[in-house]
Amino acid sequence: MLGHLRRWRERQFAARHPFPEDAWAEARARLPLLAALPAEEARRLGERAWLLLHAMRLSLHPELAESTPFDLPAQLALAAQACLLTLGWSDEEHQEAFANVHEVLILPDAFRRQVEEMDEFGVMHEYEDERAGETSHQGPVVVAFPDLMESGDFTGFNVLIHEFAHKIDLGNSLDVDGFPPLPADIDPREWHRVFMGVWEDLQRRLERGEKTPIDDYAATHPGECFAVCCEAFFTVPDLLDEAYPALLELLCRYFRQDPLARLPEPPPDADTPAE
Q: Is the confidence at residue 15, as pLDDT, over 50?
C-alpha cells in the first residue's frame, strides 16, 4: 500500500514539475564528479536531486543573493552531490537518510564558532574554530560559498558530501559519532574495528609528524573521521584503496557503490608520443 502511494505521489510530482533535462545536462557538464557517472546512474541521481530541491529550502545569504547568480544547474549540482551519498540505496532508504534535511544555507565565506570540548582527562578546552560547513540533527546544512565552489571534482575535498555525511550519521543519535545506522549485512563490530584501525593509524602518523593519506581533520573526532572518509570515498577512492583497502571495501558495501569504476581516465603522458 505504501509503495503504491509513493509511486502515485511521484507521478503527481512529475506531472507538476517536469524534470529539467537541459539544466541537469548543464549541471553535469560543470562538475567532473557528476560528469563521470554512467548514464543510468546519472539519470537516477538527477531525479533524486530534483526531488530534494523541492523537499528542502535552499537559502543564500543576502550578500550572495544580490551578487551571485545561482541558477537551476547550480542548484541541481548542489543537491546531486548530496544525493550521491544515497545513490546506491532504495528510495525508502534515501528518504529516511535525509528525513532530517530541511534547509541548505550558503554563506559568503568561512565562518567562526566558539567551541568547548572536554578532553579524555575531563579538562574543558575553549577555542575559536573556522569552518567551511556545519550542521546539526534538525538544523540546516550550512556551507561557505568558496568551499562549495571548490567541491565537485576528484581532489578529495567536498563540503557537501562532508556535511550530508553528518546528516546520515545523525540518523540514530543527536550527535555525530561516526556510527550511522547500519544495514543488517554490516556487523557493528566490523564497522568499529575498521574505522578504529584508520583512526589509530592517523593518530600514529600525526604523532610522528608524518603526512596523513587523507585530510588530517579526520583525526580530530570520530564523527569527522567518518565524514572525511566519505569525502575520500567518492572523490579519491584510489587513494583510499591504497591507504585503507579494508575501509574502501566496507564503504562500498555500506553505500552499495563502487566509486573506483567511475574514476575518469588519467590524461595521457605529455612525454609519450600519440599513436
A: yes
